[in-house]
# Entry
Amino acid sequence: MLNDRADFARLLGAALHVGQDDLPPVAARRVVSDEVIGFSTHNKLQLARADEEPVEYISLGPIFGTKSKNNPDPVVGLDGLECLRKLTKKPLVAIGGITIENASSALQAGADSVAIISGLLPKNCDHKSMRRRAEEWISVSLIGN
# Structure
């Protein structure tokens, strides 16, 4: 999955994810014709518009407070996620502040999957802790199925 760069995604035959300030999905689809494209949204209006775009999935967030962005959009929250889920039948990815502790609540609120940045790795990245964290994420992913 490449972020923002349709040209690189085409060269590598990789999936592409674009945001609100990137190449619009309809233009990205002209560059990346056969690969998966995802599109970030942050509110009701953006999500409703994204449902009409030529993308395979839509992300929504931040669901929780996040430190991964310098100027994050307002928090959507679990209630917002549950309400906005109804605006699209496309797969919806919850993003923003997702951790091992709150991922299952995002799935229960209607997300089809979650995107994780800082919550992916344990604090101590040795072999045992990495294996344990992978097993934890697998158990969380089973909650949504």
About this structure: Residues 59 and 93 are 4 Å apart (CA to CA).
